[in-house]
Design brief:
globular; alpha/beta; 648 residues; Rossmann fold; 14% strand; 46% helix; ATP-binding
Amino acid sequence: MSKYPFEFEHSKPFLQQVGEWVADVFYDILPEAGFEIRDEQIYMAFQLERAFAEKQTIFAEAGVGTGKTLVYLLYAICYARYHRKPAIIACADESLIEQLVKPEGDLAKLAQHLSLSIDARLGKSQDRYLCLKKLDNARSGYEDLDLYKGLYEELPSFVHKSEGMQSFYAYGDRKQYPHLNDEQWERINWDPFQDCFVCDQRHRCGQTLSREHYRQSTDLIICSHDFYMEHVWTYEGRKREGQLPLLPDHCTVVFDEGHLLESAAQKALTYRIKHDLFEELITRLLKNEIRESLAVLIDEAIERSEALFELLERQSESIPGSDRRRIHLNDKLIQQVNQLRKVIDGIEEELVFESELYTLDDYQLRIVEEHLEMMQKALSLFQGSSSLICWATESTTGLTLVVMPKAVKEVLRERVFALNMPLIFSSATLSTNGSFDYLAYSLGIDKYLSFSVDSPYDYENRMEVLLPKREDIASFDGKMKTTARLLQRTEGRALILFPSKEELRLFKEAIPSFPECNGMRFGFEGDSEISQLISEFQLDEQSILCAVTLWEGLDIPGPSLSNVIVWSLPFPPQDPVFMAKREEATSPYEEVDLPYMLLRLKQGIGRLIRTREDSGIIAILSEEIHKDADLRSQVQGLLPKGVDLKEE
């Protein structure tokens, strides 16, 4: 069988031949199979050919219905086979991954109509997998004991055996536990504080087995933005520790919904410090024969760490609309940090002597040293407090200090965009007011190609954008009544988009009090696994899906989604990350808040019309639009040609 889906001629440039084949696919092969010819696809194909040939970064902004996914998949598959390295398709989140690989998705269409055998494997984020150690704890430490005991008993038999495995299969994926809500799942999933190096079950772990599987892919590895950035951030460290990087060598990366890459980078490029974990790790050394001077320093380090986290508890506060707590930096806090750093310095010096005495287990010693090195890197940022962004998060096991260098875009510039490979940003929304500068600046991209093509759909006759009267949405109760009326209008069949988990929670608590919605079936993000929620919403035509993260990527054609309700304009929260961006901006509203909101709102609007036959309404419940003429003009500018804001 030929390696390429066309007859390869060695005398002609490879990518020129790919371009000719792609043109045949869209002009001849797919139309013969019932697909319509789309000039937008051909235009995009020629643009991507240049990006692949010149190994450049390109912003490929193509409206809904242009078939952009098919274009980048064809190029990525051919490019991977030419270089004998897989292409990475990095999606914004796990729900988008599922959309791509579902039985009726684009990969399945290509395989069927082009008679292509495509080796596409999923590289899911670590926190999408069950942690055997946490499951052990959950069986005795939480209220839902029967639930977790049942999950333990359902584990594959080889997990419980100590002898060599004769056969095994991947398990532990979040998708296999759709009945668990997010809180239940977080009690048993992997998190950054799991010490996998010393776990005696790491070779039987579902995450490890899945990693071995996707690393063997010859065509595509499909992962999330979060996972790709975790690979970038941990690449050097894993190599130093003698481990394989999270992803194998690859030849190109496609960032689907690429405008969300910055938030994934911010999430990955962080240090997390937790007192309980530090104490547990450092006290391991006390189980060995060590000198008294080291033991004294360990006790002092635990005391200093405990004091620091007690101070953080007092000097941090909750932020509405965010799960990040704002930390108030002052001299007292920085002094506590410096005192802890000084003790850790002493421990590191003592460990040098201890290692020469060979009294410590070498493996355990390496784990402790790596953790101390991470803490020193994180805490050193406090010396120049203007160079860091920090916040705290709460959990049932205590406070976590999260430290992020401000220079995220510098890291991206060096470790991602300086690579000599084509990088494709694909989305219906990458620009603001016709410019890609906001996104390029945020990511540290200095040189790029770009293009925009509009959607071919008839929005003027298929979409109606409503702006409820100001007096109807000036209060929470007014918004609830307006939403209930809109849901009655389409007999459900609605997606309600919320900017924050808090607003979603308040809506969920209030909706039973509205008798006009009795009998309506609601699905709430967080109540079960997200792809399961989406599937149920699509199959139950008159149901309603309420979500925080589905502003982009959700693809539900047909009458199941005939109504998109934007609960409020999705301005960024007042959390530490966006506060830092505002501080650096000359005009924070125009440079940070407004572009972010407009990009997200445009994505949300794009959930309604997914095929030529789709139609419906979009309602924006915003009091600000009524008060601010310029804001109203900006929102109007997002709408497709021929569609106007309509007050009702």
